Amino acid sequence: MGTIAENINIVRSGLPQGVELCAVSKFHDVDTIRQAYDSGQRCFGESRVQEFVKKFDHLPDDISWHFIGHLQTNKVKQIVGKVALIESVDTERLLYVIDEESRKAGVVTRLLMQLHVAREETKFGFSIDELKEFFINRKYENLVATHICGVMGMASNVDDEERIREDFRLIYSTYREIKEHISPELCGFDMVSMGMSGDWRIAVEEGSTLVRIGSAIFGPRQY
Ligand SMILES: *Cc1c(COP(=O)(O)O)cnc(C)c1O
């Protein structure tokens, strides 16, 4: 593996214009994140509230933080106003809590609805039918302090490239169906977050606008 800066450049050079890179910095310390920051990276992803709020205070204000992990409703308050995007909204209840906490804090929180298509049972997220139903029933109409910017999803954790591609196609086609047919009046619904270290090239071919890459930039995580 190269240096962090080199790794970021390799990923960047493989991303078409308009596809954003979120450097997933979970389990990496502030000094490591700063190396990426110093090479120009400004978007970072974290998956645990405690860890994120600790790092947040020690890093520059112009970082755009994405929360990408499972979020418990009782912890929402701690991250609202600090995160640029919550990518992992996996239940309606969580969405309404984020809306309420954002309203109280006087901010608007941008977020992505997490879709579960991977064939692992442990992954969080809405099923395709649940998510469509959410939009068909216009359940977003009463939101006052959140903006639904798109969807996030993960492919099955397998080696089979065709299966990974199928998962990304499902995520992308669900997004298109919502955007074009179910809720065409939604504005700013234009993000499709998919692709990690092992599969981001496939994700980009299948329509990703935002990749979340950790180990290919920072090396393996020490859990
Ligand atoms: C950890 C994580 C990533 C990054 O995974 P890598 O394989 O290290 O690139 C991306 N997305 C989510 C939701 C994650 O939890």
Explain this structure.
With 223 residues, this protein is α/β, with parallel strands linked by helices. 39% of the residues lie in helices and 19% in strands. The chain contains 9 helices and 8 strands. It has helices at residues 4-13, 30-38, 49-56, 76-79, 92-105, 128-136, 161-182, 200-205, 215-218, and strands spanning 20-24, 43-46, 64-67, 85-89, 109-116, 146-154, 191-193, 210-213. An 8-stranded parallel sheet has the order 7-6-5-4-3-2-1-8. It is globular, with a radius of gyration of 17 Å. The model has no long low-confidence stretch (mean pLDDT 96).
- Give the low-confidence spans: none
What's the β-strand tally?
8
Oligomer: single chain
Helicity, as a percent range: 25-40%
Mean pLDDT comes to: 96
Sequence of strands across the biggest β-sheet: 7-6-5-4-3-2-1-8
Order of helices and strands: HEHEHEHEHEHEHEHEH
**Looking at the structure, what is the overall shape?**
globular
- Bound small-molecule species: pyridoxal-5'-phosphate
Helix/strand/pairing category? alpha/beta
Largest sheet: 8 strands, parallel
Strand residues, percent:
15-25%
Q: Number of helical runs?
A: 9
Query: In angstroms, what is the radius of gyration?
Result: 17 Å
CA distance, first residue to last residue:
19 Å
